[in-house]
Amino acid sequence: MAATIVPAHAAFFGAKKEIGARASFSPSISAHRCRKHALNKVLAVMAPTQPSRAPSTTGSVKHGMTMTEKILAKSSDRSKLEPGENIWVNIDVLMTHDVCGPGTIGIFKKEFGKDAKVWDREKIVIIPDHYIFTSDERANRNVDIIRDFALEQNIKYFYDIKDLSNFKVNPDYKGVCHVALAQEGHCRPGEVLLGTDSHTCNAGAFGQFATGIGNTDAGFVMGTGKLLLKVPPTMRFVLDGEMPHYLLAKDLILQIIGEITVAGATYKSMEFVGSTVERLNMEERMTLCNMVVEAGGKNGVVPPDETTFKYLEGKTSLNYEPVYSDESAKFISEYRFDVSKLEPVVAKPHSPDNRALARECKDVKIDRVYIGSCTGGKTEDFMAAAKVFLASGKKVKVPTFLVPATQKVCVSTTNRNFPGRMGHKEGQIYLASPYTAAASALTGYVPRPTRVPVKGKWSYSLSYFIFCIVSLEDVDY
């Protein structure tokens, strides 16, 4: 299935045979015995027309703009912005962790003075989350540096860990930085959040402009609270239709990245809208936005709604002002998908855009399964995996880990499958949703859902998906 990119007002998603959509499913799938199927076996039709949304303005912003343009305009005290403009932006939150924190701190002290104070101790969030489990003294030194700095600067939001042997005595420790930012109320609609990690774009799920920056930029922000940014153009992705029970947001973003490639959104904003997106919970929206960087995106964003506001209840006491794209906003391109017609997908080695249907890789034998990371390690991800495990009534057939591995083939819910990303440089990593990863753990192979014809159409259900996980046989009624 392929979505055709055409001028923003006319983009559609459909079967190649019926409407002439170009096929972007070109990578060879002969390796690892993945079976190739003709694309026209999977039917796709034009997605339902998206209901019109009333234009919205924020403060003095009256010019028709996208969400990203509006947030940046508000944060730069501008009434109007165009893509490509360079602007000074006032930053609401700066996040750094134990990987890039020491470098950021070093630049801050070099440029502003060894006794300099940060611009705002309540707008900097520091989270040790990468090196905390290693016994390497040099890696531990990174945590020591950010801990000393947090104490020196009286940083309000430093989520420290002091006793690795007993997590119950670490009430301040919050875990993976991107999930912690959300759970602790640092992700607020209409604001600008920068972080020294490429997956900071995760926070765009809250209608926030969030992107990763380098140590030099972070050091400057730490001292001034400002940064010079270029306004990105916006690509819009309209996801409509009822989402099948066997799909998760990971399938959606892998479908999109496979469509536009890992360079398809380079320095662009990716805006996700449509009835499907509106029904996603916050954790699933975070999965969508987390992986925009795998397509080269500057940021991803989802319009905030009641789901967003309810999630933030009790998490923040700060006022925030959500913004929305105007009807007259200009998008560089638009893609439309009928989600009800999609199947579980995987990204084969060695790129997130090497997309294949899960059923096309059912003969790929796996050695390890990993469920975790900032993309696939949220509560909902583990709940999804648990559903598969419990419904099957079976034990896993391959080692299943919640830690990075391995030297061999690994089905993973993380975000990248580059050589060496999860261990050995020759490891073959297949990216998949928690459902698919859990199913793979039970069988030792990449699974396929069972196809069941309903009223002349192919349909799927989680129960049949579970049955297929155990039997690996098609069941027709």
From TrEMBL:
<feature type="domain" description="Aconitase/3-isopropylmalate dehydratase large subunit alpha/beta/alpha">
    <location>
        <begin position="70"/>
        <end position="409"/>
    </location>
</feature>
<dbReference type="InterPro" id="IPR001030">
    <property type="entry name" value="Acoase/IPM_deHydtase_lsu_aba"/>
</dbReference>
<keyword id="KW-0479">Metal-binding</keyword>
<dbReference type="InterPro" id="IPR015931">
    <property type="entry name" value="Acnase/IPM_dHydase_lsu_aba_1/3"/>
</dbReference>
<keyword id="KW-0456">Lyase</keyword>
<dbReference type="GO" id="GO:0051539">
    <property type="term" value="F:4 iron, 4 sulfur cluster binding"/>
</dbReference>
<dbReference type="InterPro" id="IPR050067">
    <property type="entry name" value="IPM_dehydratase_rel_enz"/>
</dbReference>
<dbReference type="GO" id="GO:0043436">
    <property type="term" value="P:oxoacid metabolic process"/>
</dbReference>
<keyword id="KW-0004">4Fe-4S</keyword>
<protein>
    <recommendedName>
        <fullName>Aconitase/3-isopropylmalate dehydratase large subunit alpha/beta/alpha domain-containing protein</fullName>
    </recommendedName>
</protein>
<dbReference type="InterPro" id="IPR033941">
    <property type="entry name" value="IPMI_cat"/>
</dbReference>
<dbReference type="InterPro" id="IPR036008">
    <property type="entry name" value="Aconitase_4Fe-4S_dom"/>
</dbReference>
<dbReference type="GO" id="GO:0003861">
    <property type="term" value="F:3-isopropylmalate dehydratase activity"/>
</dbReference>
<dbReference type="Pfam" id="PF00330">
    <property type="entry name" value="Aconitase"/>
</dbReference>
<keyword id="KW-0411">Iron-sulfur</keyword>
<keyword id="KW-0408">Iron</keyword>
<dbReference type="GO" id="GO:0046872">
    <property type="term" value="F:metal ion binding"/>
</dbReference>
